[in-house]
Design goal:
- It is a single chain.
- This protein is an alpha+beta fold and about 270 residues long.
- The chain has two domains: about 120 residues, Diaminopimelate Epimerase, Chain A, domain 1, CATH 3.10.310.10; about 120 residues, Roll (Diaminopimelate Epimerase, Chain A, domain 1).
- Helix content is about 15%, strand content about 50%.
- The chain has four helices and 17 strands.
- The protein has a 17-stranded mixed sheet that branches.
- The protein is globular.
- The termini are close together.
Length: about 270
């Protein structure tokens, strides 16, 4: 007998242009064993839905809301600030919470989220990022050139370098090379950052597993902390300008939060062979 198929509802969402396909695995069956394969298929911007990856809403063994994440290349992601903000709105829109503030379990631990306005399915969200850490500056040789990086962690690894001209930064070339660098055996998210004013920076990110994206929430948190470390930020708040919008980073570290938009783009159904 041939394989049968079923239609699986999904929602495309974005936070500052960082976009994911969202699937509700609480109210419908979803083959988690195929998630890596489906993330690659659906993320394709020419032959799929088009996204930076796949995020599945589930419940853990204790019935807590849970975020399961796969990057566009099918690799697992541990944490995504923009993805988590959108997941909070997705959970609200699908009727899984009536609270304005609640916890979501991630592979990096529990994260508190707060829905800041009444827009059901879309609106601003504050996400607690947990403890974010940055190390000292270090020189790393990449493709024959030396770059000064501040390496940090926000539930996933980051390397931040400061540049004079962000628009001319070799994001794709250096970011891709860093994914196979011996100093980062598991790959790394690479942030190129330019200071543009008091408590304001611009950022571009090459995300491991996805390439350059329009925004990176965990990257914004690490970049803000690194900018504070080198004296570019001295206030309690920092504005991080990304290619897809602006995020507000709150706190002086190590505990940080980010605020920004989460928007439902469209709903659809995809045929899933069974």
């Amino acid at each position: 007998m041939g394989r049968s198929s079923a239609k699986l509802p999904f929602t495309k969402m974005e936070g500052c242009g960082n976009d994911y396909v969202y699937v509700d695995a609480i109210t419908q069956p979803f083959p988690l064993d195929r998630a890596s394969e489906l993330a690659q298929e659906w993320s394709d911007r020419n032959f799929g839905i088009g996204a930076d990856g796949l995020i599945v809403l589930a419940r853990d063994a204790a019935a807590n809301l849970q975020m399961l994440m796969w990057n566009a290349d099918g690799s697992r992601g541990a944490m995504c600030g923009n993805g988590l903000r959108c997941l909070a709105r997705f959970a609200e829109a699908n009727g899984h919470t009536d609270s304005r503030e609640f916890l979501v379990m991630t592979d990096s631990g529990p994260r508190a989220v707060a829905l800041l306005d009444a827009g059901r399915g879309s609106g601003d969200v504050r996400t607690q990022m947990g403890d974010v850490h940055c190390g000292p500056k270090r020189l790393v040789e990449v493709l024959g050139d030396s770059y000064e990086f501040i390496c940090g962690d926000a539930g996933n690894p980051h390397a931040v370098t400061f540049v004079e001209d962000l628009d001319a930064a070799p994001v794709e070339r250096i970011g891709a090379a860093m994914q196979t660098h011996p100093e980062f055996p598991g790959g790394v998210n690479v942030e190129f950052v330019q200071a543009v004013g008091s408590n304001r920076i611009r950022q571009r990110t090459f995300e491991r597993g996805s390439g350059e994206t329009l925004a990176c929430g965990t990257g914004a948190a690490v970049a803000a902390l690194a900018a504070r470390q080198v004296g570019n930020i001295d206030g309690h708040h920092a504005y991080v300008e990304l290619r897809g919008g602006t995020l507000l980073v709150i706190g002086e570290g190590p505990s940080l939060a980010i605020e920004g938009p989460a928007r439902s783009v469209f709903h659809g159904e995809v045929e899933l062979s069974t």
